[in-house]
Structures are given as C-alpha cells and as structure tokens.
Amino acid sequence: MKNLSRNGLLFSSDNIKIVMQEDPQPEKFSRLHMIESRASFSLLFLLSPNIKLEANDCETKFLFRKNQYILHYSSQESTAELWTESQEALKYFQIQINYQYIFNLIDPESSKENADILENMIRNNYIFLHQRTPPYMTVEMHMILNELISYSKKGMVQRLFVEAKIIKLLILIFEQFNEKNTIQTEPGTSFVIKKFIDENYHKNIRAEDIGKLTGINQNKIRKEFKAQYQMTVSDYISELRMLKAKKMIIDKGIMIKEIAIECGYEYVQNFTRAFKKKFGVSPEKLRNG
C-alpha cells in the first residue's frame, strides 16, 4: 500500500479517532507507542511486516505479519508499544470508536444476534480467526483505508463519510469471521484460493504459483474456483487489480507506473493494455477526463 503516506491524526470526533502512524526514519529497532481510550474499540491494521506488540495491561506479546488486523476492546485507557527488528518502516492504521457509539449502532437489545455480536466484540473474539492467527485484511479493507486516507473534505460531510466506511469495515469483519464456520464443514478449496488471491493479487501470481504455494493441484484450483465463483482465477485476479487501479487513478499524485506496480503489473504496458480492455480508455485518459 505505497499510497498510504499521510501520518498522524487523520480524523477526530466525539466518537471516532483515526490515526495513521509510520516511523519516518526507520532504524534496526523501530518503535512506536499506541494509546487506547477508556471503554473503546480499536481497529488496528498492521501495514508493515513482523510487528511486535506488547500492551501495558497484559504480559502477552503478539507478532503480526503484514496486512493482519485486530478488533480490540479496551475497558480502561491503556498504552501499547509496537516495534520491529527489521529496517522497513513500522506502519499501522488505527481507528478508535467509543463504546456507546458501537452500542447504539449494533443495538443489542433489538435481537439475540445483535447482542451476540456485541458480546463477541467485548470479549475480544474478533482478534483471532480460527483460534490460530490474526485475520488478514481483504482487498475491500485495503481500499477503504485508502479512501479514508485520501478523503479531503471536512466538516459534516467528512464525518458521515468516515462513519459509513467504518460501518462497512465492521460488516466485512463480521462476514470474514462468520465464514470460518463454513470452512470447517466444507472442503473449502475455492474459499482457500479466494482468500489467498485476496491477500496476494497485487503480486505477480498465476494458478501454477498458487498451486505450489498452497499445495493444491492447479487443475483442481481452476475447476473448483470457476464452479464456485463463475469466473476463472486469472479473471478474478484481473478484476481485483482493475478495481484497485480505478480507485487509485483519481489521485494525480501517484504515477501511472506506480499504480501498475501496486496492482501487480511488472510492465506498465501490460497494465495499460489491461486497463483499456476493462474500461475502454487508457489510464491517462480516464485520469485527465
């Protein structure tokens, strides 16, 4: 996510605070401190690899891979220290939402399902997927973060925009965790492949590569994926890349070549060809109107 470049406080209201943090001068042992408010939910997206986190209110240390996230409830104000032993910039995106806002949004008294959702949030059941590892961000989550960072309007319009995007993020999280019940009862090859593509579409991957990395026969990958999603693996990868490219193209501060690389194209000519095939115009023409 090379276009995530803004740093510090991005948005603040009575109910929500959004912070983007990146160590501007990463060294071998880069460290940042994160604050969680009292009675608040914190959506934390880890945007650089091998981030270690230790909260002051517990002795457990966590190790996060790039693009993992957690949804954490803190009953009291607390601080956490994040650090990395690599020389890559330590980078994270944090959304803090106060408890009463979430309570009013979910309205747990309206149904048992809603009450269960809030209970799971308070008990921090949305930290680990399949009780093993923090979940990975999906393509849609990446795009929402980019939209939150690049949004330039202020005032009421910005507040409504931010709240709408946060609601969408919560929906995506609930859906992602609900899918774990399906994967336990089905063979789930197509789901596993879709998840892998969602997390790696920006790389130069093919069905053969997916087969080698997941240990699943590439013919099975092609057959089951198309049966489940009515499109080929390569078409799905292309759809995700073009969806991201169209979102990025409106930012004139990003070079076309950078967008191509960010969307998984080694050569800008291949990116331009795919973009024109999808949208009927070249990236430059769409950008310049």
Automatic annotation (TrEMBL):
Pfam families per UniProt: HTH_18
Domain HTH araC/xylS-type residue range list: 191-289
Coiled-coil segments on the chain, per record: none
Keyword annotations of the record: DNA-binding, Transcription, Transcription regulation
SMART domains (alphabetical): HTH_ARAC
One Gene Ontology molecular-function label: sequence-specific DNA binding
PROSITE patterns: HTH_ARAC_FAMILY_1, HTH_ARAC_FAMILY_2
Designated name of the protein: AraC-type DNA-binding protein
